[in-house]
């Protein structure tokens, strides 16, 4: 047991073994400052997004395993794109016991501020195999275009 995990510093005197720098660093990296608080995993559910820009559009992609399409809500107000939804907690049936529960659940909401050069009325959303893909096209006048040079 290291000195960092000890609740009562007087309970364990500092020795060469407990002050060994690599052990201290290992214990510090494993230290969870919230371990004494009862924090529900449902608070931690927040999907990660990939956002990619091409010459024609912005692409938003996120993994949403275990979420059904009817639990998703995608909205665009002005230049603010919001993706919200929920993943339900699994129910425990009679006779079952949970030994470990690490998957998060609950409501989530992510909002992105889009540039002014998007066509909001032409956003396309696709939800396939637990992956949500949003394509937000750019207005034609801001897309790069090739200009031919006349020779002679």
Structural write-up:
InterPro entries: A-crystallin/Hsp20_dom (IPR002068), HSP20-like_chaperone (IPR008978), Small_HSP (IPR031107). The chain has one helix at residues 21-30, and strands at 49-53, 57-63, 72-77, 80-87, 106-113, 124-128, 131-137. It has 152 residues and is mostly beta strands. It has a domain at 41-142: Sandwich (Immunoglobulin-like), CATH 2.60.40.790. The strands form 2 sheets. It has a 4-stranded antiparallel sheet with strand order 1-2-7-6, with no helix packed on it. Residues 1-6 have low confidence and may be disordered. The N and C termini lie far apart (83 Å).
Secondary-structure element order, N to C: HEEEEEEE
Biggest sheet overview: 4 strands, antiparallel
Strand element count: 7
* Architecture per CATH nomenclature, i.e. the level-2 architecture of the domain at 41-142: Sandwich
Family: Belongs to the small heat shock protein (HSP20) family.
Organism: Geothrix limicola
Protein name: SHSP domain-containing protein
Domain SHSP: 40-152
